Amino acid sequence: MRGATDQYLDLPRPPRSTGKRLVVTLSVLAVLAWAFLGTQFNPAELVAGLPKMADMAKQSWPPDWGRLFDPADYHLPEELTWQQTLLPGPLTQDQQDIRDAWWSNTWPQTILGGTIQTIQMAIAGTALAALFSFPLGFLAARNTSPHPSVYFGVKVVVNVLRSIPDFAVGLVLISAIGLGPFTGVSALAFATTTVLVKLFSEAIENIDQGVVEAIQATGANRFQVYSFAVVPQVMADFISFVIYRFEANIRAATVLGLIGAGGIGLLMNADFRTFQYQQAAVSVLVLIVLVLIVDFASARLRRMVQ
Amino acid sequence: MSRQPTSILLPRDADLIQVTGLHKTYPGGQEVLKGVDLAFRPGEFVAILGLSGAGKSTFLRCLNRLVEPTSGRILVPGMVVDRPADAVVDIVRVSGPELQRWRRRVGMVFQQFNLAKRLSVIDNVLSGSLGYAHPMLSSLRMFSDQEQARALRNLDRVGLLPLAYQRADAISGGQQQRVAIARALMQCPAMILGDEPVASLDPKLSLSILELMRNICREDNITVLVCLHVLELAKRYADRVIGFAGGQVVFDGPPDKLDDLSIRRIYQAKTEELRGFSV
Ligand SMILES: Nc1ncnc2c1ncn2[C@@H]1O[C@H](COP(=O)(O)OP(=O)(O)O)[C@@H](O)[C@H]1O
Ligand SMILES: [Mg+2]
């Protein structure tokens, strides 16, 4: 029996190209095989490593929570009361020196201090990048750049620089300006600027050009057009990109710590290298909680600005 | 501080603007304006009719140089661009600050309103005074009390004073077009260009917007040029109708001179094809 719509099945349809499909499927399989062979894919090694991993997990348990909660692990200077060390207030010169030494040397070596330093690195690096990328974004957008050669130049330079991974920037800066959180901040600022310029300039290129025309038609100059026609259309996106990069930079700051640029990554690295797994476990757990909180907060914030 | 802009007093019997031999060829080779000669008086309300693609928008945009004319002249009295009263300025040849001085005397209203949607209504109105305002402070969206007062007055004039501090995307289409008109009024314009200003609005709103524009034209002696695609509206509001076809003027006269023949010429159609439309 034929249904009411079956007549449509009789209409000619384009033939399915089985040949093309076969070629695509075989090519994909070939690429996969090539990749796995080239990387000496060996699940057996993974299985053989399992007991070692289990052993490591056992050695990290229970985490050494004292590192996080025990006041003794914060090595507060004996010469001062804890209020004198932690709270602002008048001190003698000697006391001042002791306090400064604790804040700059001891505090970043504690779990809480290291974590906070990582957050500070991410904030400072992202803020610097936002500052640089805002004007650069205008130069790198076709519709706001003062001249095609400026647009082209900025775009090419930023694209090339963006291809350098942030930890590679970190390695270069460590050998140039030495270990420490400032190196981490510089590396983050550099890498983040290149990403933000790309995202921001693309957002500018996607604005409704009609508003730009309308403001130009009032006799406005270039900066007035930016302020009234461009910025209002891209500001929410820009803030969103900055918050998103801050979120990514919390993780990037940790990785930079692993190679010596301060923060919790540095502590984690030291603990792993000295096989103090119970201590390392604390840093790892703190980091996980931190990343979860920041991801959640960032998603909320980004929804708020849109 | 920057001075308050004032309207220009032009004699009613002299032309505000004289267009001669205006040509426009877009990159790509299409000749869209093929020698347009027109002149407009202060306080004229002119409707421009024509098929889609006839070159109406291109013509309007050449007048404030959003589009660069290929050749031709657009002559205006010097006082409009703060030159001596007896000077005559060719807008096709001005650039930089002088072009900005011309543009600030020419308001423009668009089909899509083109407001900055995330800014408040009052900021959108204030953007109409950018050509007169302090270049740096206004770039930070800071305006003098007098400018803000003037913006509120112009909003009042288009009937939207209570919406001053709403966001521009929170108001209706008809209201947005009123804000765009208030923005144009901030310019103390000698001329207002309307590129299909009512094409996105329903018939009732269309009438009220055109009514507003005509009242402004009468009260402030502003030349108003609007492209329309509804013949009825042109007949109802315009002092003068100009028909464009294929980049040339094929009709120029008062609306009551618009007979079947001229309508056929504007719309390049046979009369039968137009039957059923209210021509
Ligand atoms: N920026 C542009 N670049 C190239 N061609 C354009 C451009 N703007 C308009 N045109 C062409 O010019 C012709 C006239 O367009 P337009 O002036 O917008 O006519 P109208 O407003 O009467 O519909 C159309 O064929 C259009 O495709
Ligand atoms: Mg048009």
Overview of the structural elements:
- With 306 residues, chain A is mainly alpha-helical.
- Chain A contains 13 helices and no strands.
- Chain A folds into three domains: 15-60; 66-100, no CATH class; 110-305, MetI-like (MetI-like fold, Orthogonal Bundle), CATH 1.10.3720.
- Chain B has helices at residues 56-63, 96-103, 121-126, 135-139, 145-157, 173-186, 203-220, 231-237, 260-267, 271-274, and strands spanning 17-25, 31-40, 45-50, 71-77, 88-90, 106-110, 191-195, 223-227, 240-245, 248-253.
- In chain B, the strands form two sheets. In chain B, strands 6-7-8-3-9-10 form a six-stranded mixed sheet, sandwiched between helices. A four-stranded antiparallel sheet of chain B has the order 2-1-4-5, with helices on one face.
- Chain B contains ten helices and ten strands.
- Chains A and B meet through α10 and α11 of A and α2, β6, α4 and α6 of B.
- Adenosine-5'-diphosphate (ADP) binds at residues 26, 28, 30, 32, 50, 52-58 of chain B.
